[in-house]
Specification:
about 350 residues; two-stranded antiparallel ribbon; disordered C terminus; 2 strands
Length: about 350
């Protein structure tokens, strides 16, 4: 794809993204969650796809950002007891207070998530393979149970986010653009990282970490930076999502390892992990399919979703991007003869 065509392609996508909530006004919330799914897939892929470290604990940073934002909004304008009594009132906070508190909370949540990722990374990024994956899965479970035992953030009963002021307009449109901005920022930042020396370093870790270390690469440092980059955007997105949902449950929303934590992995694999556009495509296909299941297969939606997971793992091991690259290499600027030559070299 030439540079001019690439710019036209990006421009068309951007215009369509801006117009989407107005073209489909009945699906504004679902479209907002689509951007969240894209962000999920992108932030998982920097570890699991680009670096080869399969993490099931990224949702921890999402939950940290969600709680940090809600607590920041509450503590800026209320006492804890007062907040509980007024949290159901539409005019509990003014629009300016709501926006200020939310964005301050999102920033604080992103910073705290990065700090936690750095501390955890020092302790567990020395683990490899399934040991690392199991450890991160344990982190998710521990985080959910810990949050459920802290009364300051609602304990097991959950925490109510501040009510969205009607003066700000449609709630779905507002959070659509917030999450779209975060997802686009994530894509742009990661694209720049992957095209730099950092991208070469984390790919070297994926290909052969021992050789990378033998060549003098500080692998733990790069792994920690990658995890912190993922945590930053997940922490910010958690704050926005908590306000969009309106209620923060420690196990089903904030630290939802069985849903969000697993979906991150599946979406990246479906689209093609280790690629730039693969997680985006995988997130879009997965989210749309899931919404169709919930709409037309009520009562059987979980069975259908489980079948979809099996199909993804068995029939799309290299994802949609890998499938397209194998069957239509010309779409990626590679001729058929070049593709055949590459395949022969790989077999040799």
């Amino acid at each position: 794809m030439t540079r001019n065509r690439k710019y036209v392609f990006y421009g068309l996508i951007f215009v369509l993204a801006l117009a989407a909530p107005f073209l489909a006004p009945d699906y504004q919330t679902q479209l907002a969650f689509l951007w969240l799914m894209i962000l999920f897939a992108l932030t998982w892929d920097i570890m699991g796809g680009q670096m080869g470290y399969n993490s099931f604990g990224n949702v921890v940073f999402f939950g940290i950002g969600m709680y940090t934002t809600a607590v920041t909004q509450r503590n800026l304008y209320f006492e804890v007891e007062q907040y509980v009594s007024v949290s159901g009132l539409v005019d509990a906070v003014t629009p300016s207070q709501y926006v200020t508190g939310m964005f301050l909370g999102m920033g604080a949540g992103a910073i705290l998530a990065v700090f936690i990722a750095f501390i955890l990374g020092i302790g567990i990024l020395g683990l490899r393979g399934h040991y690392f994956a199991i450890c991160t899965l344990g982190l998710t479970i521990a985080a959910g149970e810990t949050a459920g035992g802290i009364d300051y953030i609602g304990g097991g009963s959950g925490m109510v986010a501040p009510v969205f002021p009607l003066a700000l307009g449609e709630k779905g449109i507002f959070f659509y653009y917030v999450l779209m901005t975060l997802a686009v920022m994530t894509f742009v930042v990661f694209q720049r990282l992957y095209s730099s020396q950092f991208g070469l370093a984390i790919n070297a870790i994926r290909d052969d970490e021992d050789k990378a270390e033998a060549m003098g690469l500080h692998t733990t440092r790069y792994k920690a930076v990658a995890w912190c980059a993922s945590a930053f955007f997940l922490g910010a997105a958690g704050g926005a999502t908590g306000n969009l949902v309106g209620f923060i449950d420690p196990l089903d929303v904030a630290f939802a390892g069985s849903t969000f934590g697993v979906w991150m992995v599946l979406m990246a694999i479906l689209g093609g992990k280790g690629t730039m556009w693969g997680p985006v495509i995988g997130a879009a296909v997965f989210h749309i399919t899931q919404e169709l299941f919930w709409t037309y297969l009520f009562g059987w939606q979980r069975v259908a979703l489980g079948a979809l997971i099996v199909i993804i793992v068995v029939f799309f091991p290299k994802g949609i991007m890998g499938f397209l690259h194998h069957h239509w290499p010309q779409l990626f600027g590679q001729t058929v003869d070049e593709a055949s030559s590459s395949e022969r070299e790989g077999k040799a």
